[in-house]
Amino acid sequence: MSDTHTLYATSPEAIQSSLAALLGDRADAITVDRGEVTLTVRSVNYFEVMQSLRDAPVARFEQLIDLCGMDYQTYGDGGREGPRFAAVVHLLSVSLNHRVRVRVFCPEDDFPVLASVTSLWASANWYEREAFDLFGIVFEGHDDLRRILTDYGFIGHPFRKDFPLSGHVEMRYDATRQRVVYEPVSIEPREITPRVIREDNYGGLH
């Protein structure tokens, strides 16, 4: 009974401390916010750190439950310095009832590349394909890195902050050629800003 209680009562601060001891200078930062532990690592250490998180007795993160891309181009109204693209991974230890969020930045903005962790967790397969499709992050070592959500003829990566809302190409069925065709998008890109009108003393404010 006491062992079970201890297992499920471990605090985020205790997880933070054990991960700091395990990873040492391979961890750039380990923070606790809103009861959640976030580990930030450099891309050069990413695969080795993830392997330690899976195999080390104090970690035992058996499951990768999510991986997504991030684009920090306009983060904080564009005032942020540093790499633009990152992958964020959520790991779960079933045996220890621990969770951790791992964030790793791609060293290059023009051609973002990270190591694949599909050899550690098979569940990373489709998640990495999604991050490649939507953000253009290349996962080195992935056996089948191709688009998963957008169409085969899609151009660009639609979750990047600089991707146009109307896209680059549009698809339609051409009855004459009896096949699907791709053409440059015909919608004129525009940005609509809602007009806000406030009457005097609106909402009782002066």
Summed up, what is this model?
It contains four helices and nine strands; from the N terminus they run H-H-E-E-H-E-E-E-E-H-E-E-E. The protein is of the alpha/beta class and 206 residues long.
Protein architecture, described:
The chain has 206 residues and is α/β, with parallel strands linked by helices. The protein has a single domain (2-150), classed as Beta Polymerase, domain 2. Helices cover 20% and strands 28% of the residues. The chain contains four helices and nine strands, in the order H-H-E-E-H-E-E-E-E-H-E-E-E. The protein has helices at residues 2-8, 12-23, 46-55, 124-135, and strands spanning 27-33, 36-41, 63-71, 85-93, 98-105, 113-115, 138-140, 169-174, 179-184. The strands form three sheets. A five-stranded mixed beta sheet has the order 1-2-5-4-3. The chain has a two-stranded parallel sheet with strand order 6-7. A two-stranded antiparallel sheet has the order 8-9. The protein is globular. It starts with a helix and ends in a 22-residue tail after the last strand. The relative contact order is 0.11.
